[in-house]
Design brief:
Structural class: alpha/beta
Order of helices and strands: HHHHHHEHEEHEHEHEHEHEHEHHEHHEE
Number of helices: 17
Radius of gyration: 23 Å
CATH architecture of the largest domain: 3-Layer(aba) Sandwich
Length: about 375
């Protein structure tokens, strides 16, 4: 790819009023990032919402000059620019409607690894949270899972450290440019991660770790991973935001329960109580729920136990799955005209009875 096209790709992200969703739409309409800048201004002005801004931006040389400076930076520090249509761009993130147009990546691992798990939590990690994080990471070594988190204080940094300790690749998603590390105390950790995983961000060099950047960072964590685990979380904070975003992407969300009077387990208990996350206690729970152990050992076939007593709700679900094959829980709720709480309880009982199994992406099918 010529540097000229990369200039336009980066420049597209610098146009005022053009976010990731609109930016990708413009590329679809015009054919490429460069074509957006070469489009006649009179045509751009006719586009809804930001037509006038677009027309002004394509004639603004400062935008492309800034993009040129960024290319010099990424060349100097051996950073990989990942455009949303590039083969190396994370495929899981590409499936998210608001995935970044551009990512900047420094590291040595495959962002499209077979199994990717996000682990997030409170900055005020307790000994309990640290122990659980270590046990989860160590228990997934045989699966060679890529661990993704946000390089923040607390659970995030411990997830990264344990991944490094146990020989797993780990990627930190930053809320600022790659010209710095925040918090600065994590610089040695970040430097080691670059040799056993990497650092990724959508922000250009010079971008400070402003508060508004971190919710955007959280969506990348959720989008990169097959599933997100919340180890400890208060009733507010980035971990719960990440869990909500993961749910909106129809990704699996798991949470570790804690004591009812522990403020740093209030968020995880809430996620479980409101069916926003599945309860897990150990790495084996993740392996089972994600179906990651299916290829490791051949299990004896489980006979469909349709002779067990089933409630009317369970009978409806079984009949639907016989007809449709695989269904998500939202589809089951819609087709059975039942509340999420009732459907979740029915599915859990059917799992215990060996009638259905849960697949990645919160899909269910008959065993």
């Amino acid at each position: 790819m010529e540097d000229n096209e990369l200039i336009y790709r980066i420049g597209l992200t610098l146009i005022p009023g053009v976010g990731d969703v609109l930016g990708k739409k413009l590329v679809t309409i015009c054919g490429s990032a460069g074509a957006v800048f070469r489009e006649p201004r009179r045509h751009l002005k006719k586009m809804t919402r930001v037509g006038e801004l677009l027309a002004q931006a394509v004639g603004n040389k400062d935008i492309l000059l800034q993009a040129e400076k960024e290319i010099a930076f990424i060349d100097r520090y051996h950073i990989s620019p990942l455009y949303f249509l590039d083969p190396g761009y994370p495929q899981r993130l590409r499936h998210c409607f608001d995935g970044p147009v551009m990512l900047f990546y420094k590291g040595n691992c495959d962002l499209n690894a077979t199994r990717v798990l996000g682990i997030v939590g409170t900055r005020n990690a307790t000994d309990y949270g640290k122990t659980v994080t270590r046990d989860l990471v160590s228990g997934l070594v045989s699966q060679q899972v890529l661990i993704v988190s946000g390089l923040a204080y607390g659970i995030d940094s411990h997830a990264h450290r344990y991944a490094l300790d146990f020989g797993l690749n780990t990627v930190g998603v930053l809320g600022h440019g790659l010209d710095m590390v925040y918090p600065w105390m994590h610089r040695p950790l970040a430097e080691k991660m670059v040799t056993q995983g990497g650092l990724v961000t959508e922000f250009m060099s010079g971008t400070k770790p402003d508060r508004t950047n971190f919710p955007k960072r959280n969506r990348i964590i959720a989008g990169l991973a097959d599933a997100t685990v919340v180890v400890e979380a208060g009733k507010k904070g980035g971990a719960l935001i990440t869990a909500d975003i993961a749910n909106s992407y129809n990704r699996d969300v798991f949470a570790v329960p804690g004591r009812v009077n522990d403020p740093f387990s209030e968020g995880t208990n809430y996620l479980i109580r409101t069916n926003r996350a599945s309860l897990i206690q150990k790495a084996e729970d993740i392996e089972y729920l994600m179906g990651w152990k299916e290829g490791a050992a051949v299990q004896p076939p489980v006979q469909r136990r349709f002779f067990v007593e089933m409630t009317p709700e369970e009978e409806k679900i079984v009949a639907l799955l016989q007809e449709k094959g695989q269904l998500g829980i939202d589809e089951i709720c819609f087709l059975t005209e039942n509340l999420m709480s009732k459907v979740s309880a029915a599915l859990l009982n059917l799992e215990f009875e060996g009638v259905v199994k849960c697949l990645p992406g919160k899909l269910y099918e008959l065993i």
